[in-house]
Amino acid sequence: TRTAQALRTLPKTELHLHIEGTLEPELALRLAERNGVTLPFDGLDDLRSRYHFADLQSFLDLYYQLMSVLRTREDFADLMFAYLTHAHEDGVRRAEIFFDPQVHMNNGLDYNLVLDGLQDGIARGRDAYGIDAALILSVVRDLPVESAQALLDAAAPRASELLAIGLDSAEVGYPPELFEQVYERAAGMGLHLVAHAGEEGPAEYIRQALDVLHVERIDHGVRIVDDPALVQRVAAEGIGLTVCPLSNLRLQVVDDVANVPIRQLLDAGVRVTVNSDDPAYFGGYIARNYTALAETGLPVTALATIAGNSIEACFAPEEGKAAMR
Ligand code: ADE
Ligand code: ZN
């Protein structure tokens, strides 16, 4: 439709995207074969039948299982380039992309192999499309804090290749405050600071991410609507919220896309952005998230505001932002 086309061409950034969440089932099976990895699925139809999630954890179980097919530098390069191709088609000028090295390291891979492969894919995307991409080192919060510190040990020699640190995986029971020292150290390495908070967890976790971790953006953050004072504060401070509507729907955070509190947050003056999170699992890349909101009656003018917010909330230098506006 014309609206869908208009939403695709809006200049935008994507600020909440897990590269491992772009692993399409076809590619997962192809890499399993290429790398001799055995998966407990009987072909594509059987694998596809597993994409029904009751909550965040049931998604994470499949997401971590499929990550075992990623073995070589080329695998990571191919995965990144495939994502950047989708992103470019959806009007993305810049993407700030999470990766989960602890999982790959637990699968026996070297941190540098993972980083090299992702950087190869980013270079291919820049050459092919002029798209700008940067990496967010994401800490898996349901692994021990010592594992996060070991991750920073591995990441430190090439910290200048990283944009930011993030915090993801199972939220409830793993409050941000556990990672105070990890974030302090990451800040000392020159990284920007973001964290998932208020997806399944309470608004209190958003408050901790701000006050204890000193994050500059909140990933998801939809539960902030339970705390009106916090909504006012985040609006006043210009903190970006990276909301992911199709993710919230598929993980049963909401029962309908219309109930993702986008309009409420925009009306309160919050710097809301729209993103795809794990598009291979949740039914669409970023433009599909925009159109899903348009289908709920959110005006195209509001979606243009959101695309503008995504440029303001990104960590590109001011000249880079100006070039995207
Ligand atoms: N890892 C990948 N996607 C995630 C999400 N939506 N929440 C927490 N951890 C994740
Ligand atoms: Zn996420």
Task: Please supply descriptive tags for the structure shown above.
ADE; 325 residues; TIM Barrel; globular; binds zinc ion; zinc; zinc ion binding; alpha/beta; single chain; EC 3.5.4.2; adenine deaminase activity
What would your notes on this structure say?
It is a single chain. The chain has 325 residues and is an alpha/beta fold. It has one domain: Alpha-Beta Barrel (TIM Barrel). Helices cover 50% and strands 14% of the residues. The chain has 17 helices and eight strands. It has helices at 2-9, 25-35, 43-48, 56-66, 73-89, 101-106, 111-129, 145-155, 180-188, 203-211, 228-237, 245-250, 262-267, 279-282, 286-295, 300-312, 318-324; strands spanning 12-18, 92-99, 132-140, 164-168, 192-197, 217-220, 240-243, 271-274. An eight-stranded parallel sheet has the order 1-2-3-4-5-6-7-8. The longest helix has 19 residues, at 111-129. It starts with a helix and ends with a helix. It binds adenine (ADE) and zinc ion. Zinc ion (ZN) is lined by residues 16, 18, 168, 196, 219, 277. Catalyzes the hydrolytic deamination of adenine to hypoxanthine. Plays an important role in the purine salvage pathway and in nitrogen catabolism.
